[in-house]
Design a protein that fits this description.
single chain, alpha/beta, TIM Barrel, 6-stranded parallel β-sheet, 6 strands, globular
Length: 206
């Protein structure tokens, strides 16, 4: 089994601040190595995942709490965004204080990713099965970002490739092969770069 690290977060799909004290305990007791997923989700497939004022208020409260906690305890923050990149961009100052920010399954455009980096955010952008569905934004972002800022993922069991009911862990092989194809390099050369980026993004080399 490959090495794993543990994290805990208040997800924007259920921004329940009753978990805030438990999250703080895990951080202070050094039980976790990252915070997340935090973020914003306005996909519209539920009352708490809309731009309703109450949903925005609750998601924002959870996000700010977690970003400030990550800055205080010096842990990476994993960010979940759906139809919400514009909202997240307004919190560049908070994210710049976090030691590392991983944008899980990066949904935005290349220029948005570049803007995040220009804000002084130590950001990494993770790519998964949308690449296997030939997502234009994912391919554009992957091809245009510095290679030191990219990561791979599956988001298993969610976001399945075409023809599958669920994403499997072994789909990471297909994702990595697709990344190598987009970047026009050999997979065997990409894999050690992704490992190095993972260690940097999650502060494992400190």
């Amino acid at each position: 089994m490959p090495p794993t690290i543990a994290g805990f977060g208040i997800h924007p799909q259920n921004p329940d601040m009753q978990n805030a004290d438990f999250l703080s305990f895990l951080c202070n007791a050094k039980k976790i190595q990252f915070i997340g997923e935090a973020g914003f989700d306005f996909f519209g497939d539920g009352p708490l995942r809309s731009r309703d004022p109450e949903a925005i208020r609750r998601q924002t409260e959870a996000f700010i709490f977690q970003s400030r906690l990550a800055a205080r305890v010096r842990l990476p923050l994993v960010v979940h965004l759906r139809k919400a990149t514009d909202v997240c961009m307004a919190y560049g100052r908070e994210l710049a204080d976090v030691p590392s920010v991983v944008f899980h399954c990066w949904p935005g455009r290349l220029e948005e990713a570049r803007m995040i980096l220009r804000k002084g955010i130590n950001a990494y952008f993770s790519f998964g099965t949308p690449l296997l569905r030939d997502s234009r934004h994912a391919i554009e972002s992957l091809a245009g970002l510095p290679k030191t800022r990219i990561l791979s993922e599956t988001d298993a069991p969610w976001q399945p490739p075409h023809g599958f009911a669920w994403t499997k862990l072994e789909h990471i092989i297909d994702v990595t092969d697709k990344m190598a194809q987009v970047l026009e390099i050999e997979t065997k050369l990409l894999e050690p770069l992704l490992e190095k980026n993972f260690a940097a993004a999650y502060l494992l080399d400190e």
